[in-house]
Write a structure and sequence with these properties.
320 residues, alpha/beta, D-Maltodextrin-Binding Protein, domain 2, 2 domains, 13 helices
């Protein structure tokens, strides 16, 4: 078996031809960020897949867009992200095979606001222009009937927590871990505004359909491992820390980060961040609605065909 290989890719990749039709000896996985405790479950799944015969390498890219470009160009085989705009507009037949996590983000504000409607005309601090939190802000505007004021951008939920505490912003959108962090530190200073339920994908695994069909056995091993971990985690979140390889990328993180893995996964499972069934058709339909409202898909979501965006055969096989 080949060991994991970590490369940090910073330069943009030119869009090129889709992945080669030849079957791969080693699956090349494009991560959208460097390994962190929030990715521990994914690496546990990789270890299970490796035990069942999967050879793989992984590359950590600086952001989702670079990971998408790497798959589009054929440099990488399977990637992290929700590349709906690229799916619809590029000639490469990209397809999602597994929902890694749902869009569970939380509007966190100073005490001057108590409801999403209070943010009409108010400035908001987001992660990046065109990114996930920008999409969430678009959907909030659409569903609640408001219009945010000036949007400013600061990558990293943890950095937006610092900005809130320092009084540099009054409203932002945070992930689960950092929402919990700020409310534990400063419960009297901030509100978590009520938010509508979302089943749409935040992170998913996608690949070129031609590559998937030419590597069916490897993809099936990978998806079955993911399903097994997501279902085991749903029953007992501590399985992630117990199965984390101490010599792997998560096991080599600083102790203070690894110490929070059990708490993170307990809160994430309780908060509905992970679908133990890998998303499937429910997630695909939710994605059509969400990413259409977010401006990343063109057309009426009711007319979009989920099979133009998802390839469900590996997940169906894993669930049977």
């Amino acid at each position: 078996m080949k060991h994991q290989i970590m490369k940090i890719a910073g330069a943009a990749l030119a869009l090129g031809m889709a992945a080669s039709a030849a079957a791969a000896d080693t699956i090349r996985i494009a991560l959208a960020e460097t390994p962190s405790p929030e990715m521990a479950a994914f690496f546990v799944a990789l270890d299970r897949a490796k035990a069942n015969g999967l050879d793989y390498e992984w590359t950590a890219f600086a952001d989702e867009e670079l990971a998408i470009q790497a798959v589009l160009s054929g440099q990488m085989d399977i990637g992290f992200g929700t590349p709906y705009a690229a799916m619809q507009r590029s000639k490469a037949p990209l397809r999602i095979v597994f929902q890694l996590s749902k869009l569970k983000f939380f509007p966190v504000t100073s005490k001057k606001y108590s409801d999403l409607k209070d943010l009409d005309g108010e400035p908001i601090l987001l992660h990046s222009r065109g990114g996930g939190t920008d999409s969430i802000a678009n959907v909030i505007e659409d569903r609640v009937g408001i219009k945010f004021g000036e949007r400013s951008y600061l990558p990293g939920s943890e950095n937006r927590v610092v900005a809130l505490i320092a009084g540099q912003a009054d409203a932002t959108i945070l992930d689960l871990a950092n929402k919990n962090k700020i409310m534990a530190q400063e419960p009297d200073k901030f509100n978590v505004l009520p938010m509508f339920e979302v089943d749409a994908s935040d992170e998913a695994l996608f690949a070129n359909l031609d590559w998937i069909k030419n590597n069916e056995e490897a993809v099936d091993i990978f998806v079955k491992a993911l399903v097994s971990v997501w279902q085991d985690m749903s029953a007992d979140p501590t399985i992630i820390s117990r199965e984390t390889d101490p010599d792997g990328p998560i096991g080599q993180l600083p102790q203070e980060l690894r110490d929070g893995i059990d708490q993170f996964y307990a809160e994430a499972v309780a908060g509905g961040l992970y679908d133990p069934d890998g998303g499937g058709r429910k997630a695909a339909m939710a994605d059509m609605e969400w990413y259409s409202a977010a401006g990343q898909l063109d057309g009426d979501p009711s007319t979009l065909n989920i099979e133009d965006f998802w390839y469900l055969a590996p997940l169906d096989a894993a669930m049977n």
